[in-house]
Amino acid sequence: MRLAFLGPSGTYGEQAARLLAQLEGLAEVELVPQSGIRAVVQSLAKGDCDAAVVPVENSVEGGVTACLDALWEHPDLAMVRALVLPIRHALLGSGSQEGASEVLSHPQALAQCSQWLADQLPRALQLPTSSTAEAARMVAGSRFRTAIASLEAAQEHGLQVLAYPINDVPGNCTRFLLLRRGDRGSQGPLASLAFSLHANQPGALLEALSCFARRRLNMTRIESRPSKRELGEYIFFVDLELGDALADLEPALEELRPLCEHLALFGAYPLTNLATEEAD
Questions:
Q1: Could you tell me where the beta strands, DSSP code E, fall in 15-144?
Q2: N or C: which end of the chain has fewer CB within 10 A?
Q3: Within 10 A of 19 (CB to CB), how many other CB atoms are there?
Q4: Quick one: fold of 2-86+172-184+273-279?
Q5: CATH topology of domain 190-268
Q6: Within 10 A of 118 (CB to CB), how many other CB atoms are there?
Q7: Tens of pLDDT along 153-202?
């Protein structure tokens, strides 16, 4: 079993991949790091890997746009399971916090620590990287460069923990998805889909969402992304709570389908929320 994740070693994606593999009962898993979220999805779509783990949503910064775009490009992929992972960022380096003139990390991590950085390192240059662990790798040995990454990344790359935790919101967490090729599951409390409408006209989106409302299917998320074809044309990503209403999903989709130019159901799947367990 080859399982792709956003690398290198030490990322939150690697943590999520190990946990999701355990939850699925996968044995003899080979973790395969990739250099970007699109590369993670592509490795699965092309058959280079058997499964993939990607971040789809953060509680502070919202949807991970690279993941949403990649999923729309590959509607044949299925969501198998979701995991909500608490995120606790640390400032890592080989020098001191006072001597830091550059801070490297993934753009989402920089945004999640923006207030802390403004207060503690207001003059430091913020530089985006492909992942938090890649930032940790790049700053190893530097006296003036620091990275925002996990405690695991500090151990992996031999860095000192200069400050922890530094995320602005204590309850910061990210939802990760386990993706596979093949049939989409129909069992689970959560379902995900995406659609584009035939026309941009008054009431078009309301009519589409009414297909769920009439069957009392609660939306836990709705997000739009540009279609990249023309200005004002959007793709809508929706998560639905199913609960006991699993039988109502297919009639809702049948009613929705004629309104859509494209409709992709990514599947129904179980969700494990470690943030809730941590709070308990």
A1: 30-34, 51-58, 62-63, 77-86, 90-93, 102-105, 125-128
A2: C
A3: 18
A4: D-Maltodextrin-Binding Protein; domain 2 (3.40.190)
A5: Alpha-Beta Plaits (3.30.70)
A6: 10
A7: 999 899 999 999 999 998 889 999 999 998 777 678 899 999 999 877 78
